[in-house]
Amino acid sequence: PSRHRLLSGASLSVQRASTGAMGNQCVIGTLRDSYGIWLDNTCWVECTTNALGIMGLGKVKDVQDGLATFYWPGLGQYVYGSNDIYYYGMRRTMADVTGVKLTKDQFVRTKDGRQGIVQEVTDINARIVFGG
Questions:
Q1: Under a CB-based contact definition with an 8 Å cutoff, are residues 84 and 11 in contact?
Q2: pTM
Q3: Which has the closest alpha carbon to 77: 8, 20, 12, 1?
Q4: In what side-by-side order are the strands of the sheet with 107-109?
């Protein structure tokens, strides 16, 4: 069965990415999310329309030549162009290292054990306050 069935009405331009399909060269600032925010390598996105809830957050792996490679945990890697990004309402968001979306008043912990609380979250940054 095709993996594209999991994407609920994906346009025909969606293709499964192979390892190294986008090459090693990265071009930042060549593609925006559906809300006008620049996408760059390692940022996270969520689908706000036309997608099944199982997609969760996706991580941008590469942006080049008007295409972006996204990794969706549980679904794999897919390449999307701007039409696909608008169709799915992809929106840049902030997430922790495991892909859990950050929300205001959420408790977080650093790798070295320091605890903090998320004070503010935007599409491109999060302010976290740590105790003294």
A1: yes
A2: 0.72
A3: 20
A4: 107-109, 115-121, 126-130
- SS3 for 3? helix
List, in sequence order, every beta strand (DSSP E) within the chain: 15-16, 44-47, 57-64, 67-72, 76-81, 90-93, 107-109, 115-121, 126-130
Amino acid at 125: N
The percent helix, strand, coil of the chain (3-state, each to 5) is: 10, 35, 50
Quote the tokens at residue 84: 């696909």
Among all chains, which residue has been given the structure tokens 């996270």? 44
- What pLDDT does 6 receive? 27
Vertex 13: Cα angle to 67 and 63 (nearest 5) = 10
* Lowest-confidence region among 1-5, 19-23, 97-101: 1-5
Here the tokens at position 74 are: 């549980």
- Cα 49 to its chain centre, rounded Å, is 14
